[in-house]
Write a structure and sequence with these properties.
- By secondary structure, the chain is of the alpha/beta class.
- The chain has one domain: Rossmann fold, CATH 3.40.50.720.
- The protein has 8 helices and 9 strands.
- The strands form 2 sheets. The chain has a 7-stranded parallel beta sheet, sandwiched between helices. A two-stranded parallel sheet has the order 7-8.
- β4, α4 and β5 form a beta-alpha-beta unit.
- The chain is globular and about 45 Å long.
- The two termini are 31 Å apart.
Amino acid sequence: MRGLTGRVVLVTGAASGIGRATAGRLLEEGARVALVDRDADRLAETARTFGTAGGAVGAYAGDVSDPAFVQHAVEGAARALGTVSGVVTAAGIFDPTDMTPIADADPHVFARVLAVNLTGTFLVVRAALPQLVRDGGAVVTIASTAGLRGHGFGAAYTASKGGVIAFTRLVAEQYGVQRVRANCVCPGFVATAMNRDVHDDPAFLARVRKATPLGRIGQAGELAGAICHLLSDDASYTTGQVIAVDGGATAR
């Protein structure tokens, strides 16, 4: 992909799932990557693995809902790796207790999920913008098909991902004149640690296959390819877009 070599990209949720796969793909493309995750042990292992393979990485352990930590991570990445010109906000949570009718939803769960998924996205982008505007940059946020159409459950998760979609469009509108592009990727069902409890449920997997034109669940690496394309110069005229990478599920 054009233009990723030497570029500094900060990736949240980088110790597992889509975030880790994206960080790995960016390193393959020659980028320098700042890894951010709240799981310090898994983050350290990820950084060691990528570093041993010759990747230029920095690692910052903390919670993206904490403004002070986010500022520290973005500034640390700039000092260690150079001006940040790309951001991927893959950090996200889903609380199983969110699987309830709205009338029974726990306000504390709702607030916590929004704090990580939506406020965390806002804080990371806000902190990185002073660097992104220097020479033009790219933001790729990670929402969900839940934010496009709802899934019939998960008030907190659905609301948080819908907010990420709207926020991304706002970034594209406000900062396009300063050559900052912002796009949102909405995964369908993708095999990650966040949903590993249903990976071995034949009935659930059968429902996913039936609801997906491609007839299977997605893999994190498949999302990484789409994300890296949007960060690259191959997508230089693409901004403000919301792209479902879902095996065709939202086409139905």
